[in-house]
Write a structure and sequence with these properties.
By secondary structure, the chain is mostly helical. Helices cover 73% and strands 3% of the residues. A two-stranded antiparallel sheet has the order 1-2. The N and C termini lie far apart (67 Å).
Length: 463
């Protein structure tokens, strides 16, 4: 009997925070092996690629530093964390009006026999939001989309994938993504958002790839639920019954609530593209939305505050994950090994053909992304070196930007060091092991497609 129990006990990865702390431990060990080094930087933080030197690290990582960087990482991620909590709180206020449940009930009812079109349609919506730079902003939507996926007869992974992989393809191709395309093009001396047509083509192709994988998986688990990466997902039917149990009428107030929500989304998009809004402005916008929802529905102000606070608690575990993931980079920064790694690998590019350089650059950005998931952070570190190197090798700066973007993007939804991914899984009730089983082939295919796009950009002389 004991042998049978042991056989049935499948391997399970530890909690996400344990995984992230293991990565922190690996970085700490690396700090005693890899010599410290740094580039000379100007007042704006730009690197002089010709001025690198090994230095004595007078602040090595200590036992206390290892644990201190966890709360420090939470503080450093405050703008993201506050934005997620505020948006989650406001979404909960909206949920309490019944507007979202009423809309989902009608969407689910209209989708009978066409469930896959709802999945692919919502994936496209989140993909478009990713194109303009949405990332962590989408996390508060994960629980409700997971509930919808369960109501449609799919598993939790499908709900998480709709949001996470939709954002993934949009953010990675980033035709109008200020946080990647905009910053990279500015650092490379390229007009902002040029070659957007090529990047939209990338997005369309990536969406087709994702849609084919998603449709295949959805059909498979509909026919045989045991094929799901979450074989026990049928327990989620309790959530489906909760969502679909009490039929809620679509009243005028609920329609106006949803309309106010849509207007807020549009204002957020315009603010991001035209006004350069960041996380703090987005948070302020959603506070205004909460006030509007309270007025529309005649809700007592104290009740709104109670619901708002309740909503913020639903993402507490996710925001802690983001902070712990941030601690990984803080440790690397303290050890002063980031510049050393870049300096060593940048030397590999010299004397190679443009296509070999692009391949090496693509692989390097992917590997480096495991440790530094911030696209803008990597851009400020790498582009002062990549720009002159590309000029020497005759590679167009637009091609370098494209290669960097695609190398940076897709694996943010694969590597466990990504706070965005791990927070989304936490909110969706999906383990990292289950996500790997589901997404490895999808993201692997997208990574290969990204390399093809980089080669195509070089072939056609993208400018």
């Amino acid at each position: 009997m004991r042998l049978d129990k042991k056989k049935k006990r499948a391997f399970q990865l530890p909690h996400v925070i344990i995984i992230l702390m293991c990565i922190m431990l690996a970085v700490t060990v690396m700090s005693f092996i890899i010599p410290s080094g740094q580039f000379v930087r100007d007042a704006s933080g730009a690197v002089d690629p010709t001025q690198f030197s090994y230095v004595e690290n007078d602040n090595p990582i200590t036992f206390f530093d290892f644990f201190y960087d966890i709360p420090h990482g939470i503080v450093e991620s405050a703008d993201i964390i506050i934005s997620i909590m505020v948006i989650s709180g406001v979404l909960y206020v909206i949920e309490q009006t019944g507007a979202i449940a009423a809309a989902l009930q009608r969407l689910t009812a209209a989708a009978k026999g066409k469930e896959i079109f709802v999945v692919l349609g919502l994936t496209l919506v989140f993909g478009v939001l990713g194109v303009i730079g949405w990332g962590e902003d989408a996390l508060p939507f994960v629980p409700m989309v997971v509930s919808l996926a369960l109501a449609l007869g799919y598993d939790r992974v499908v709900g998480v994938a709709i949001v996470q992989l939709g954002i993934c393809i949009g953010f990675s191709t980033g035709a109008f993504n200020t946080f990647t395309t905009g910053i990279c093009q500015e650092l490379a001396g390229v007009p902002i958002f040029t070659a957007w047509q090529f990047r939209l083509l990338e997005f369309v192709i990536c969406y087709i790839i994702l849609a084919l994988f998603l449709a295949s998986y959805c059909r498979k688990i509909k026919r045989n639920p045991d094929k799901s990466v979450m074989p026990d997902y049928r327990r989620g039917e309790q959530q489906e019954q909760k969502l679909m149990g009490e039929q809620l009428p679509m009243t005028t107030r609920r329609v106006l609530t949803l309309l106010a929500f849509v207007v807020a989304l549009v204002v957020q998009v315009v603010g991001a593209i035209q006004l350069g809004w960041g996380m703090e402005e987005f948070s302020g916008l959603y506070v205004i939305l909460a006030v509007a929802v309270a007025v529309i529905n005649g809700i007592n102000p104290s009740k709104v505050c109670t619901d708002f606070i309740q909503g913020t608690t639903t993402v507490m575990s996710a925001v802690i994950v983001i902070g712990v993931a941030r601690a990984i980079y803080l440790l690397m920064e303290q050890a002063k090994i980031v510049d050393t790694i870049i300096h060593a690998l940048a030397n590999v590019f010299e004397g190679k053909s443009p296509f070999v350089v692009l391949l090496l650059l693509y692989l390097f950005v992917i590997v480096f992304n495991f440790f530094v998931t911030s696209a803008s952070g990597k851009a400020f570190i790498l582009f002062p070196m990549l720009k002159p190197l590309a000029d020497i090798l005759g590679i167009n700066q637009q091609v370098v930007v494209t290669t960097f973007q695609l190398g940076d993007g897709f694996t943010n939804w694969l590597f466990p060091s990504s706070g965005l991914l791990m927070a989304g899984l936490e909110l969706g009730g999906v383990t990292y092991q289950q996500w790997l089983r589901f997404s490895a082939k999808i993201i692997g295919t997208l990574v290969l497609a990204g390399l093809c796009f980089a080669f195509l950009a070089q072939t056609i002389g993208l400018s």
